[in-house]
């Protein structure tokens, strides 16, 4: 059994290698450690190895962990799971980022419920890039309207896009999806000053995602082991 420290180190070298192979500058890809279903002690182990960005999927579990680890003030907490509107308040009160914005109602509630004592909430719009049937994420055509709305909200800072491409049948299809996503990201980035984050790539597809311009990979099982 490898330790969390060892697996974190491997994940970091994999990111470095993929970044270099893509001729991208060192450190242009951040690692978000996804800790859903994993105990707080795993988060502490990764923290002790220098990891600072952590992602959670489930609101109640995530909020409990943020509270239990409140003394680790430099952890940056990312909500990456689907959000229901009755759960937005605790998320606005505890998280630094929400990556799963997929409708105006959720954005508006987060903006209204963000405590004035906290910095603006960093948000990503989740894009449904290749699977029209899935419930999560918006279609590319809906992007301009949602971007405009979020730009008008003082307590939200629009940082970019997030996507979870479905497993592609072959490399060609995977590359096509990732290229389309990167094109969209770069297109909107030209006119938006704080739009700097493309969150795509997980344990299984991080190398391809980095080759296609991902700036943040979300890695769970490759660091913390399979979830039961
Ligand atoms: C669980 C999850 C991840 C991490 O997936 P792994 O395959 O464990 O690396 C990344 N992003 C989202 C949105 C997730 O729900």
UniProtKB/TrEMBL annotation:
N6-(pyridoxal phosphate)lysine: residues carrying this PTM: 36
Native organism taxonomy: Bacteria, Pseudomonadati, Pseudomonadota, Gammaproteobacteria, Alteromonadales
InterPro entries reported for this sequence: Ala_racemase_N, PLP-binding_barrel, PyrdxlP_homeostasis
HAMAP family: PLP_homeostasis (MF_02087)
Keywords: Pyridoxal phosphate
Role played: Pyridoxal 5'-phosphate (PLP)-binding protein, which is involved in PLP homeostasis.
Domain Alanine racemase N-terminal: 21-227
Protein name as catalogued: Pyridoxal phosphate homeostasis protein
Highest rank taxon of the organism: Bacteria
Entry coiled-coil feature ranges: none
Transmembrane segments: none
